[in-house]
Amino acid sequence: MKGSLRNAGLLGKVYSAGDFLYKEFFKKKEDAEEQYKNLQPLLKITFGQSGRDSKEFIGLLQALLSLTPIGAKRRNFKRRYIDDKDGWRKLPLEPAEIPYGHWW
């Protein structure tokens, strides 16, 4: 009984890690762009209600950051739009307008 529970726990950890890696490395550009279009307008609303340092606003920024591919594009996106206090204001409404090297 204990062995099967331990194996089930290990299987759950392996599944979670595999699911995370799949999502990080095999995201679809179309899905990311759709989510971006939903999240981007919420930034101004959340900023107006809660401010730049609120958990909600930071969560939105992190959600946008997670949509970018791992690597240089994510670092560039983070440096330009997340780390800069006013960088979020530069985010275009359409993800296709984000400069090369910062998005898909």
From TrEMBL:
Top-rank taxon, per record: Bacteria
Record protein name field: Uncharacterized protein
